Amino acid sequence: MQVLAPGRMRMTAELIAASEKQPHDDATSGLHPPLTERELRFNFAQARSMVRVTGHIADSPLLMYPLAMGAGGHYHEPKGEVFPSRDDPDYVALYDWAAGATGCP
Known about the structure:
Helix content is 44%, strand content 0%. By secondary structure, the protein is mainly α. The protein folds into two domains: 1-49, no CATH class; 54-105, no CATH class.
């Protein structure tokens, strides 16, 4: 999954447009311009593509890969565990978002 972020991967035309709108002091101090609306929509589409639209939302890659293996998550790189359990408030928030983004239970 490709995700865009300030100071990292960006859409070239969008970065140029965002840089032109950025205050001069921010640009000279090394601050990166925020993502554009188009880039935010791209990130949303990328995240949504990692959510299952059939079956159980909890089986979606978006939820399984950052979940600790001890909590039932998929194998991932060391230090890749973001959520220690399915009860973690951030996991619950992501689960709720995924369910709302797809209309699935």
